[in-house]
Design brief:
Blueprint (H helix, E strand, L loop, with lengths): L1 H12 L16 H5 L25 H5 L7 E7 L5 H10 L6 H15 L5 E4 L4 H7 L3 H13 L8 E3 L11 H8 L3 E3 L8 E9 L3 H12 L4 E9 L2
Parallel strand pairs: 1-6, 2-5, 5-6
Antiparallel strand pairs: 3-4
Length: about 230
């Protein structure tokens, strides 16, 4: 309630403008939300890549970069050339936390579209150094929105990034896999025997989500499904 009151006062002093088109009175206007390139049709059952035929056996990405631990990944939209990209950027790098509520609803819509169910919501964690640098983890904000909308508990402490990693942005598929190998750990038994809905903002190869799933399953988690706002083409 305190955060929402603070945001309300900020909005009065600095009225919101859409992060994509700059129209007043909304951080992400309805027109731009309608212009998002949502993923539709058949997707690979494992990595969530759009494909003409269902099944990981026919997916080019799974053939070249197979996921080993995560049960499946689903994404709401494409990342490139559509309004969701600046929305993610503003949330992640420019402290526009108010947009998390809108993006959280997009994640929930994707969960319901794909029939994803879980016992608990878990965000992909930042390394402690990166968290101090940025001041917040955008995946935590998204996870809390998803948890509230789906009436699920949110665990932000069990899964931890135990090794600092380079940004995945400019790395190839093999480098991405090596970069996050053994980068995550899971402490305590709070998630043992549970099904986890793992939250991230963007999926490219799925290496980060797969590494998180490895750590979770080594600590007794039954299954892990990843859900992201966007997927790189």
């Amino acid at each position: 309630m305190l955060q929402k009151s603070s945001q309300f006062l900020l909005d009065l002093v600095f009225p919101p403008r859409c992060v994509n088109c700059q129209v007043a009175n909304s951080w992400f206007c309805e027109k731009c939300q309608r212009e998002i390139s949502f993923i539709g049709g058949v997707v690979c059952e494992r990595c969530g890549t759009p494909t003409p035929v269902a099944g990981a056996a026919s997916c080019p990405q799974c053939k070249h970069n197979p996921l080993q631990f995560i049960d499946g990944i689903r994404s709401a939209a494409y990342f490139e050339n559509n309004p969701i990209r600046p929305a993610i950027h503003f949330l992640k790098y420019r402290n526009h936390k108010a947009i998390a509520a809108i993006l959280g609803q997009i994640l929930v819509d994707a969960c319901q579209k794909y029939g994803l169910e879980a016992h608990v919501v878990v965000p992909v964690p930042l390394h402690a150094g990166r968290l101090r640098e940025r001041g917040y983890n955008q995946c935590d904000l998204l996870a809390r929105e998803v948890g509230a909308l789906l009436d699920l508990p949110v665990d932000t402490s069990s899964l931890q990034r135990i090794r600092h990693t380079k940004s995945q942005m400019k790395l190839g598929a093999t480098e991405r896999h090596q970069n996050v190998l053994d980068a995550f750990g899971c402490r305590g038994q709070a998630l043992s025997g549970r099904t986890v809905l793992l939250i991230d903002d963007v999926c490219t190869t799925g290496s980060t989500l797969d590494a998180c799933a490895c750590a979770l399953k080594q600590n007794g988690v039954i299954s892990v499904w990843g859900i992201t706002l966007a997927k790189a083409r």
